[in-house]
């Protein structure tokens, strides 16, 4: 998959290739493409080259969404490097994201599998609508659990679920296997986002502390902190006003003091366990341990 990703970037014009290559080379766990490749092995038509093409397209889709997200969030850095918007401006960021949405769509269409194309198209539509929902909800920050889950299912879990489903469809897996893998991916995406929320409070994460607070992103620790008997009122008061550095620092301290970080971590572990139950009865043809390792890696990031 890495070779196919590099090959696809190599043929693109430099104005879009350069910013995307820097983002891709900055790292990442490649969870979504790995899920697609593993899922493709569970059908009768396992084809590693076609699976690698699908996986590379999914990773480009993911990174295109990150370029747009960073612009919307006015984020200065990602993975320790300047974002495309911060380094090259908003117009370039929008163009780079649009280009790779289009390129990934063409790559998937060239696979010649209508079911796969439909699955990925549905996911992209969901991601775009959820991004709009997320921005709209910042006026009602920090929101509630039901709202949070709806946004997370759209912005994050949709591509996890689509990677699993499309991979299984590409390999011509039975419909029951496709459905279970889709549910597995959905739950994995939810657990991933819960854990990602916790990284906002970790000095070793590589993310600027309090980034979610500053950008007023719907976040589970903040939702729970506003409900805390001891500290909730003060957290709500701070979030309702302008968030200067001293206010962000106080929110960070109150969230940690409320104990909600442990609560979110425990919930994320429970969601991963539910995801693994979705696939425990499947005949996984040797990929079961790898799927389990990927699932557990979503929550190991804060240890």
Question: Could you please describe the fold and organization of this structure?
Answer:
Helix content is 73%, strand content 1%. With 303 residues, the protein is mostly helical. It has one domain (2-302): Farnesyl Diphosphate Synthase, CATH 1.10.600.10. A two-stranded antiparallel ribbon has the order 1-2. A hairpin with a 2-residue loop joins strand 1 and strand 2 (81-82). The two termini are 28 Å apart. The mean pLDDT is 92.
Reported by name, the CATH topology is Farnesyl Diphosphate Synthase
**Which structural category fits the helices and strands?**
mainly alpha
CATH superfamily: Farnesyl Diphosphate Synthase
Helix-strand sequence = HHHHEEHHHHHHHHHHH
Which stretches are poorly predicted, pLDDT < 50 over at least 5 residues?
A: none
Mean of residue pLDDT values: 92
Radius of gyration in whole Å, from Cα? 19 Å
CATH architecture: Orthogonal Bundle
Instruction: Give the tally of structural domains.
Output: 1
Return the CATH class. Answer: Mainly Alpha
Q: Give the tally of β-strands.
A: 2
- Strand order in the largest sheet: 1-2
> Residue share in helices?
over 70%
How much strand content do the residues show? under 5%
């Amino acid at each position: 998959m890495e070779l196919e990703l590099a090959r696809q970037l190599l043929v693109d014009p430099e104005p879009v290739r350069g910013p995307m290559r820097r983002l891709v080379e900055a790292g990442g766990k490649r969870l979504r493409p790995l899920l697609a490749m593993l899922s493709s092995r569970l059908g009768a038509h396992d084809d590693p080259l076609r699976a690698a093409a699908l996986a590379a397209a999914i990773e480009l889709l993911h990174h295109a969404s990150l370029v747009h997200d960073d612009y919307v969030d006015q984020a200065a850095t990602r993975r320790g490097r300047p974002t495309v918007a911060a380094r090259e401006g908003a117009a370039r960021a929008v163009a780079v994201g649009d280009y790779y949405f289009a390129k990934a769509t063409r790559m998937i269409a060239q696979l010649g599998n209508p079911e796969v194309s439909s699955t990925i198209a549905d996911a992209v539509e969901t991601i775009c609508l959820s991004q709009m929902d997320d921005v709209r909800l910042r006026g009602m920050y920090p929101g509630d659990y039901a709202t949070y889950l709806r946004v997370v299912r759209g912005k994050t879990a949709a591509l996890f679920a689509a990677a699993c489903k499309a991979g299984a469809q590409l390999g011509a897996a039975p419909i029951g296997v496709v459905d279970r893998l889709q549910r597995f991916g959905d739950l994995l995406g939810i657990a991933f986002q819960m854990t990602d929320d916790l990284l906002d409070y970790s000095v070793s994460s590589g993310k600027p502390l309090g980034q979610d607070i500053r950008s007023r992103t719907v976040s589970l620790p903040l939702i729970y902190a506003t409900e805390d008997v001891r500290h909730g009122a003060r957290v709500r008061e701070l979030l309702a006003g302008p968030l200067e550095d001293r206010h962000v620092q106080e929110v960070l301290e109150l969230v940690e003091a409320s104990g909600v970080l442990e609560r979110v971590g425990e919930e994320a572990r429970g969601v991963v366990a539910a995801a693994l139950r979705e696939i425990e009865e499947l005949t996984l043809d040797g990929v079961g341990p790898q799927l389990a390792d990927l699932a557990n890696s979503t929550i190991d990031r804060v240890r």
